Amino acid sequence: MASSSSIPCPPRGIYVPAVAFFHPDETIDFDAIRAHLTRLAEGGVDGLVIQGSNGEAMHMLHDERQQVLRLARELTCGNMGKLQRVAHDPRIGRPFAAFAGKTDFFLHGLVGGSHGVIAATANLLPKAHAHMLRLYDEGRLKEAQELQTRFSRADWALVQLGIAGIKAALQKYYGYGGGRSRRPLSSAVDAKKLDGEVDAAVGGLVELENSL
Q1: Mean of pLDDT over the chain
Q2: A Pfam family in this protein (predicted)?
Q3: How far apart are CA 83 and CA 85, in angstroms?
């Protein structure tokens, strides 16, 4: 077994705890998962966290988890040269990295020395999250602060709706997924709950996402 000192840190950046999708009969919607993972990859994120709590792994059978993982692997770039460079990059340093765990304090985490973010809201806004990291790295702190204010409003609005709320937002703004979760979670979020204050907090960021 490899020692902990031989295991490299993951690259700095944006990691998305990807949500899973289900048909009305609660079977897995692989087409929606494929569309979602493809959109995230094209959005410039640095990695995907598959089968975490947002992915509802605890509500899946073992073979269902394997099917989702196989699908995710099919959609990776398969660039082993890149993997080799990352695994042996001398800039990575000691094998430990701390990540902010919510969009709500993404910028705060960067200022505090975090390695990036693992954020559920990045399911909806991958490019906007990557944009935040660029703003910070380029020293454009006023713009980063303004974006963080918008992020915090949107993250707070979405967290009130749970995992199904993220999926309902993906259906509303991007047209896939159906917004359903598997029991015992609430099966779906009423689309009307995404109107009003939620849309006011999220809609403008979706426009930013689509412009990047």
Answers
A1: 87
A2: DHDPS
A3: 5
